[in-house]
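Subject: Protein record for review, amino acid sequence with backbone structure tokens
Concerning: The relation between a protein's sequence and the shape of its backbone.
How to read it: Take the token row as a discrete description of the fold.
Enclosed: The protein record, placed directly beneath this head.
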Amino acid sequence: SAAAMHTPHASQMHTSPMRADKALMEFFDDKKHWSENEVKVGRAWRLDELRIRSNKELHQLWYVLLKERNMLFTMEHECNEQMEIFPNPERIDKVKISMDNLQTVVRERNKAYHLLETGESGERPQRPAKNAFGLQVNYKSCEHVLPPFMNLKWIKSRNLGFGGRAVNRFLLKYREQLYNAKRKAKNRSRNEVMMILRRNPDFDLEVLRRKFPDVNIDKLRSEDKARGHYVPKVGV
């Protein structure tokens, strides 16, 4: 979390040799938290906070978060073994978000350095490809000793082709599922706008257009279902 640098776990960051029993306790939370149902923690690190840190600070923070993640996984496993409640399981998500944001910042810096020095991003080249289920994925290229036409092991393990009646049937069902999910989401938005207009006829239409860009507000206002049971003021 953002307060990880000020927590007891962060203050215990060291590289000196330790006793085996004391080193093993590094995988467990502080003993005063063992019987607690709730542990007060901070939030995850944000991108803008990490961008102003130096490379050395990011390197130190990475190992602090890694140590915190290992401790949380150990405590979660131990609580499951003892059939007890693991306090604040969202701590694992906060650490994961922080580590993902840290990797994003490091990747941004590496990309900027390579663009300045070589004119290339430095990222592994990618290309769209179809997997075994016929779905499009981003395939990341990597270096090999043998060329592709001689590397039979790579050809067998990286066969990106697809086909067959079962795959075509799966793609048909998968596209149908995506279409139904999109259609239901659009109907939910339309019904929500309709209820808002029925209860509040004078609601700001610009706000509705910004919140529901896929709904035709003007067309929906002309329908009978969007009209509320109210008596319009005449001659006012």
User: Anything to note?
Assistant: The beta strands are 126-130, 136-140. The CA atoms of residues 44 and 97 lie 6 Å apart.
